[in-house]
Design a protein that fits this description.
17 strands, flat, single chain, five-stranded antiparallel beta sheet, about 550 residues, alpha+beta
Length: about 550
């Protein structure tokens, strides 16, 4: 009987180990597959986001360069350009050209479009009246996208032998009476873009084999790219997405049949330079970008196999009396980690397991109590105790998030700084209890004037603040509209304890980023505008940029 019992015990132990090892092996395989997929996705995101960041940097540099050249041409246009002293004008233009070699040619025309003065005397006496650089610059600045200028190219030195391309900037010239007298035109050699490409892309190409393509939004042709690609037209989904104004990345098959991680963005201009809408594509070969995943996959499979063997060995040594309680505890812990409400199981018979279960139960109880206390404290710290509106702590936290969202969505943040008129007499006449009730009703009316994703704040006393999310194209109009509604809402009578009370408010308005790039500065500008509005007579609103004392 003893021998039979031992044989039965061995068979049960072997059976248990085989089941346990099989389960762990299956779990390891599943987790390895999930981990491999997650790592692949994470690496794709990392590479794609790096490509987006690089394309945004390049786009910013291209537009910033054009803006800087535009400012230089504009400053030159303000020097007078006296046709009667051509040598002095030519010396000035050539001095600027010497400092900024990207300017391939400067020319000053008369009102008929005939070149009067030019660097190197090129094209002097010739008419460019039919050229866009003259036709489109008679009223305002003109920017001409990348193009070839065969006549000028034939007169300029060309050491590279490649087809010369130019970008145009021209400003109108007016006499003292405001009459049109000609155009200051400049041709920028496209070589500056190639130099920028070499400077930024060469290290990336050597380390990651990343390639840059600058594409015309009009023709879809490559303006700047690797050798042999200039002039080609691609049909890519990433190109279509960029034309819609979005930035992002995708894994895409290119015309050569290979898959690339492709980042895309569109140049949107810089400062007052509107930009040409150039589309920037950066690509990295998918196999090269994801090479690390194969190595990671090998490590995961090796670790999984080793883990299975080790667990099978220890399972052989552990009895069912130990594994069962531990599995119960493990399942409970997993459910807790997912946010489910579950009690820690209780088992008797093994002192160490009982001690572990007791400790886990105490830990979960303490963490739950601490989390509840922290949540309550955080809620109280961000609310005004009297009105229930957000306070200064909430304002600081909200502005950080709102600024990020506004930047991503090309929105503005309009700040209305309010101070109640005639509130102190109410407080002095009827007492603080009535004043507090009045503040609560003011808070309710302010909350009704804004949208759900906007913020109403009580700063203290009778000072309030509204933060609006407004369209970049008309932030002042939106701010004025809301200010009018607030003035109307707070000028209506308030009924408190069967007493009708009449107050009003004065508002200062500032807009981010139009008035300042700093959120703190915008708040300060709104505060200053409020005090100027008070000095102008109260019960009105005034913008930070308005200095005439009355915005109404």
């Amino acid at each position: 009987m003893k021998s039979s019992s031992n044989q039965t015990s061995k068979r049960l132990r072997t059976h248990f180990v085989m089941i346990t090892a099989g389960m762990i092996l299956t779990l390891t395989l599943v987790l390895s597959t999930i981990a491999n997929h997650s790592a692949s996705r994470a690496l794709q995101d990392q590479v794609g986001n790096a490509l987006i960041d690089t394309s945004l940097l390049l786009s910013h540099n291209l537009d910033q360069f054009m803006w800087a050249r535009s400012v230089e041409v504009e400053l030159l246009s303000q020097f007078g350009m006296d046709f009667e002293q051509p040598e002095q004008v030519r010396d000035l233009l050539e001095a600027v050209q010497a400092k900024v070699p990207s300017f391939a040619w400067f020319g000053v025309t008369n009102a008929e479009g005939v070149v009067q003065v030019a660097t190197g005397s090129l094209l002097e006496g010739m008419s460019i009246a039919h050229r866009p650089v003259f036709l489109n610059a008679q009223d305002d600045v003109f920017y001409g996208d990348v193009h070839e200028a065969q006549l000028l190219a034939s007169l300029l030195p060309n050491p590279s032998g490649e087809a010369m391309k130019f970008v145009d900037i021209s400003f109108p010239l007016f006499d003292d009476n405001g009459d049109f007298r000609g155009v200051l035109a400049a041709h920028l050699s496209w070589d500056w873009a190639r130099e920028l490409q070499r400077t930024i892309m060469e290290p990336l190409r050597e380390r990651h084999n990343i390639q840059l393509f600058v594409i015309s939004p009009e023709s879809g042709a490559v303006l700047l790219g690797p050798s042999g690609y200039v002039g080609q037209v691609f049909e890519l989904e990433s190109l279509e997405q960029a034309k819609l104004g979005s930035d992002g990345f995708r894994i895409e098959t290119w015309p050569n049949g290979r898959k690339y991680v492709t980042g895309y963005t569109t140049a949107t201009g810089y400062q007052d330079f509107p930009g040409f809408g150039w589309i920037l594509l950066l690509r990295e070969d998918e196999q090269s970008a994801l090479a690390a995943v194969s190595q990671l996959q090998m490590i995961i499979w090796s670790a999984g196999a080793l883990f299975t063997v080790l667990f099978a060995f220890f399972s052989w040594r552990v009895t069912q009396a130990v594994t069962a309680p531990l599995q119960d505890i493990t399942l409970a812990a997993q459910r807790l980690s997912r946010g489910e409400i579950v009690a820690i199981p209780r088992h008797q018979g093994i002192r160490e397991i009982e001690s572990l279960e007791h400790s886990l139960h105490s830990l979960v109880t303490n963490l739950t109590q601490a989390e509840s206390a922290l949540g309550y404290m955080e809620s109280q710290a961000h609310r005004d105790a009297l009105t229930g509106l957000a306070n200064r702590n909430a304002l600081k936290k909200y502005m950080q998030v709102a600024r990020q969202h506004a930047e991503q969505q090309h929105k503005s943040l309009t700040v209305l700084y309010l101070d109640l008129d005639k509130f102190k007499p109410v407080n002095d006449t009827y007492g603080h209890a009535v004043g507090d009730a009045l503040l609560k009703q003011v808070a309710e009316r302010l909350q009704q004037q804004i949208r759900q994703d906007e913020l109403a704040v009580r700063l203290g006393g009778d000072e309030f603040l509204l933060v609006l999310t407004t369209d970049d194209r008309c932030p002042q109009a939106t701010g004025a509209m809301v200010a009018e509604r607030v003035l109307s809402a707070l000028s209506a009578p308030f009924e408190i304890n069967h007493t009708s009370l009449q107050i009003g408010c004065t508002i200062g308005i500032a807009i981010w980023p139009q008035d300042s790039q700093s959120i703190d500065s915008v708040l300060d500008l709104a505060d200053r505008a409020l005090y100027r509005a008070k000095e102008a007579g109260r019960n009105r609103y005034l913008f930070a940029r308005d200095h005439n004392g009355d915005s109404n």
